[in-house]
Amino acid sequence: MPEEKEKKMVGERRRAQRIKRVLADTTPHHLEQLTKQTRALTGDDEGAEVQGSSMEAIRARLGNLQQRHSSLRDKLTKANPPHKDFNAKMESEFKEGETESILLEGDSWNDDVITELQGRICESGSNSRGEEDQQVDVKPELYEKPIERQSVMYKLHRKMIHGVSGGRISVRFDTGFGEEKCESYYCVLTSSSATDKLHVTEHSIPFFLPLRELEKAHLATSPRVFIDYVGDILQAYVSRREQVREVKETKGEHIGELYHSLSFSLIELMLKEPHCQVGVSLAYYNLESELPTQSSVTAWSNSAELVPQVATKRRATSVRSTAFRLPKAEGFLRTMPLPQALDELLADLRATTGSPCSPEEIEVTPLLPAETS
């Protein structure tokens, strides 16, 4: 028995030594691979020497990444990304039949419109192909009359639906901001027959909007719901985007930092005031909405004299910063467009004399350490 225990212990020591040798051989290789990946992410050449970990080097690398991120975001959020040819073709197609469009209002816009349109254009397409096949037997004088390709167009609020023989239904979604007309987006629905389900074959809708999810959820069961959803999401996206653009143009001198997601469903900005800074965070969980679902406004006083009195009364020993919430401003942001809401917010902050960010004359909620964790 003692000999078996001794053999077992010797075997375990040998295995431990082999593991150490393997780790010693592979760890430098792994570190080298990780170093190469880090260089690639930061834009450095693969063979370049690793720069020091000083703050200056880190800032330089982060600056490079931010520039590349900003450039990529600008390319992805252009009004008409890589769909110029498609958009031009669709614009010409809709322009030809827009004068003869049929207006749909109220209950007249329903799924039966798409079903009837689908059946009409599919039948027209099959008849046209049959007539083309029989042209060899037609008398010469009948060649002078061209074969009509049936085209039907419906007009709705900010939407146009164009059915062309051959089983293709094109939808144009118009967007706007205030009185200004913005870009149009296109989506083509096709089916092989009048009884088959429609599906999306071409579109110019931004990739970060959930078109495919809406197609799976609604197009087969209710084309009207699908078209309305897509139109509402596009209009809300353009409205949020234009609100941010207007804020940049009109309040650029007050904005310290501004961040937004591609779909503008998350917007964060920092406002600079003489006596305080104000952080605004907006979240749009409903992509059909032009107003935020959730808003948060936090102010930081630049002077210790502006600490909210309510905070010092509740827990004076715990207050280590001068940050406080502005519930009234948060209400502005949830009930009105961003430019107007910021006007109300800034006016409320400047309502006092000599202390533009004094919390004594605005409704505040203190931020204590327990609430920020």
Automatic annotation (TrEMBL):
Pfam families, alphabetized: CENP-O
Localization per record: Chromosome, Centromere; Nucleus
Chief localization: nucleus
Sorted UniProt keywords: Centromere, Chromosome, Nucleus
Extent of the signal sequence: none
Domain of life: Eukaryota
InterPro entries: CENP-O
Family per similarity comment: Belongs to the CENP-O/MCM21 family.
UniProt protein name: Centromere protein O
Organism of provenance: Sphagnum troendelagicum
Lineage: Eukaryota, Viridiplantae, Streptophyta, Embryophyta, Bryophyta
